[in-house]
Write a structure and sequence with these properties.
The complex is a heterodimer of chains A (156) and B (131). By secondary structure, chain A is mostly helical. Helix content of chain A is 79%, strand content 0%. Chain A has one domain: Up-down Bundle (Four Helix Bundle (Hemerythrin (Met), subunit A)), CATH 1.20.120. Chain B has a 5-stranded parallel sheet with strand order 2-1-3-4-5, sandwiched between helices. The longest helix of chain B is centred in the C-terminal third of the chain and has 14 residues. The radius of gyration of chain B is 13 Å and the shape is globular. Chain B starts with 6 loop residues before the first strand and ends in a 5-residue tail after the last helix. Classes of the chains: A mainly alpha (156), B alpha/beta (131). Chains A and B meet through α1, α2, α4 and α8 of A and α1, α4 and β5 of B.
């Protein structure tokens, strides 16, 4: 049994559909934020933190519901948006926003077509987003559950 | 106290997560699981009936999980109530902030029913809520 089917075990189809509708709602909110940023790259780039939050929510929910591909792209969007928010050059913000549109569109597509195979096109997009994130300095340092356990133990 | 007597409060702004966590908790023996979609919605639930365990998301608006932790720790009846953060947050600085703020445990998404059960049972035992 895959982790995806394990996570989905016990949830009937109607529940899954309700959850998917909620995910779609987050994606729509992210899209609306991105449009506002695009209207004024300099003045509204701070809104990218909202976009990042939407992607974070999508990532967490998708992970728990067993949709890892959605979570993977959402995480790239989450991190790239934070880079765009603090970018000092307008050209960098523009590049970020363009990449975020790709991420946003793909997340939305995958929410609807969540059971389809990963396409070559999606893999290319993920590679491109990762490369851009690396070019902007990479993602923030992350911790896993093991490291969290160690942090909790050292505190106690 | 038995697991079946424990009142759990789950605070998460995502409906899918509230339903998921509540179902997982019920599946491992908890009978009373209250849910709230925000910190403001959660506060009155603390007053209604005694709460023995809190599971809260970190990222919520306008008040987040750390705001709720502060509120709970300042509440005379809940200074020591087991408080577990349940989140997808894995950025090191934010995780450290939550642990430093005084959460009793930290569960990272995705998690299974067994992982959730192990975590909450352990924290309930550590805090002597169950034997």
């Amino acid at each position: 049994m895959t982790s995806s089917s394990q996570s989905n075990a016990g949830q009937n189809n109607s529940q899954i559909e309700i959850f998917i509708q909620e995910l779609e709602g987050f994606a729509v909110k992210a899209e609306s934020t991105l449009k506002r940023v695009e209207e004024d790259l300099d003045g509204n780039k701070g809104l990218l933190s909202e976009f990042s939050e939407s992607m974070f929510t999508i990532r967490g929910t998708a992970l728990q519901l067993g949709f890892p591909r959605i979570a993977e792209i959402a995480e790239l969007g989450e991190e790239l948006a934070l880079k765009g928010q603090t970018a000092t050059h307008r050209a960098h913000v523009r590049r970020c926003v363009a990449a975020l549109w790709d991420a946003q569109t793909t997340v939305k597509y995958l929410i609807v077509h969540r059971d389809s195979e990963t396409s070559e096109e999606q893999q290319i997009l993920m590679n491109r987003l990762q490369a851009m994130l690396n070019a902007f300095g990479g993602a923030r340092p992350k911790v896993g559950q093991d490291e969290i356990e160690a942090l909790l133990r050292s505190r106690n | 106290m038995l697991i079946t007597d424990i009142n759990v409060l789950v605070v998460d702004d995502v409906n899918a997560m509230r339903v998921n966590i509540r179902e997982l908790l019920k599946g491992v023996g908890f009978r009373t699981v209250k849910v709230a979609s925000s910190v403001d919605e959660a506060k009155p639930l603390l007053e209604a009936d005694p709460v023995h365990l809190v599971l809260a998301d970190l990222h919520m608006e306008p008040l987040n999980g750390l705001d709720f932790l502060q509120y709970v720790r300042a509440h005379p009846a809940y200074k020591t109530v087991p408080f577990v953060m349940v989140t997808a947050e894995n950025a090191k600085e934010n995780v450290i902030a939550a642990i430093t703020a005084g959460v009793d445990d930290y569960i990272m998404k995705p998690f299974t029913a067994v992982q959730l059960q192990n975590k909450v049972y352990a924290v309930l035992q550590r805090k002597k809520v169950i034997g």
